[in-house]
Amino acid sequence: MSRYYSYLNTSKQIVTDYKGTEPLSVWLKKFFAERKQMGSRDRREVSQLVYQYYRLGNACKNENVNERFAISIFLCNDKPNELLNLIKPEWNQLIELPYLDKKAMINGFDSYDIFPFVDEILLEGEELSAFCNTHLFQPFLFLRIRPKQTEIVIQKLTANNIDFIQLSKSCLVLDNSTKVDNVLLIDKEVVIQDYSSQMIGSFVNFFMVLVQNKAKPLNVWDCCAASGGKSILAFDVLGKIKLTVSDIRESIIHNLRKRFERAGITQYQSFVIDVSKEVTQFQKQKLDFIICDAPCSGSGTWGRTPENLVHFKKEQITYYSNLQKRIASNVITSLIKGGYLLYITCSVFKEENEGVVSFLLNQYPELELKKQELLLGYALEAENRADSMFAALFKYNPV
Questions:
Q1: Is residue 171 within a helix (H) or strand (E), and if so which, with residue range?
Q2: Are 395 and 204 in contact (CB under 8 A)?
Q3: Which of 32, 73, 221, 315 could form a disulfide with 84 if both were Cys (CB 3.0 to 4.6 A apart)?
């Protein structure tokens, strides 16, 4: 019993001391490193309590900290909980009720208070409510099966008694606690990639249809490549391409090269560049396809980083929007006539998405919008508990 009170007290200390200046996962790692006496179970229990606390966002913010912890445990779990049994036993007896029934039991609880700045999202009614509610639940683990690997992947998962749902020919959904790296060859057989991120493949497929008569290998530049997930996706969808990848830090490119080695991608260029400034490397090169997965607020992924529901500042939306406009403007002129720009964010804010699209179309009459979509991962059904993303595909037609 005293152990669970200790977990609660430690969690209360964390939410008091943590100020949101760095990712919560990084901050917790440092916090636990200074407390060697805490075992793996202790760290796991405390981490879970803290993450659940932040999942409430700004809902019930006038309640005291103990009550907020009780509410978060009650709403975020569907099985009896030892700590909740100590601090709110009447709720623990009802914890297996459906989420919507439990929510109705909490005085003053409003789903719209969970996610900040809801007026910045182009959602309303039931869609907006569902989007807010889903932040109370951690997104699932999604795998994208790479070409010609389906049979071996399904066979390995089945042989190791790992539960999964196959959403499509190439997409699997698993419980987020599932360990697959000792069963599957990550990046070679499967890529760990959120469902909405995998859906970017529909934009790549659409681009491929539009340029299907292209005789030579396509010149593709992933200008904000990060870990390279979109590059591997493009490689798998488009086949033989001349691939170039870049990002702002050498450490990112170093890790990307290791990932490409595992993925079997050997023919590519890579370099470090700040594409928010001048893009001198490509002044004389012209590209068929530019993937711009731009730096953003990450608001579509806050189900994985719920601390942002509390600590993200509204003025950062405009900061990212301005950065995105500079980046997209800088890379556009590296396209050939008839080339395509795929603009992507993992944000749900209209200023970073539709706002940037409008800016580009107004600023560059030579751009033609071919397709755009907000890819929602908000639904509570098992197959849809994913991140949310935005994508827009432009064709470049200079005079």
A1: strand 171-174
A2: no
A3: 73
d(CA 61, CA 114): 10
**C-alpha span between 87 and 4 (Å, rounded):** 10
Pair 397, 338: CB distance under 8 Å: yes
Q: How many CA atoms lie within 13 A of 126 on its CB side?
A: 2
| 231 in Cβ contact with 200 (< 8 Å) | no
Count CA atoms within 13 Å of residue 393 on its CB side. 19
Q: Output the pLDDT for position 380.
A: 41
Spans of the chain, pLDDT less than 70: 1, 213-215, 281-285, 379-384
- The CATH number assigned to the domain with range 141-192 reads 3.30.70
Structural tokens at position 363: 């600023």
Instruction: Find all residues with CB under 8 Å of 52, minimum gap 6, and list them.
Output: 69, 72, 73, 76, 77
Are 313 and 347 a contacting pair, CB within 8 Å? Answer: no
pLDDT of residue 262: 97
pLDDT at 378: 74
> What type of residue is 385?
R
Where do runs of H (alpha helix) occur along the chain? 2-17, 24-33, 40-55, 65-76, 82-87, 89-92, 99-104, 125-133, 150-159, 195-210, 229-238, 250-263, 308-311, 315-332, 354-363
Report which residue type is found at 361.
L
- The full set of domain ranges for the chain reads 2-108, 141-192, 195-396
What pTM was computed for the model?
0.94
Residue 397 structure tokens: 């037609």
CATH architecture of 195-396: 3-Layer(aba) Sandwich (3.40)
Phi, psi (rounded to 5 degrees) for 350: -60, -30
The residue type of 296 is C
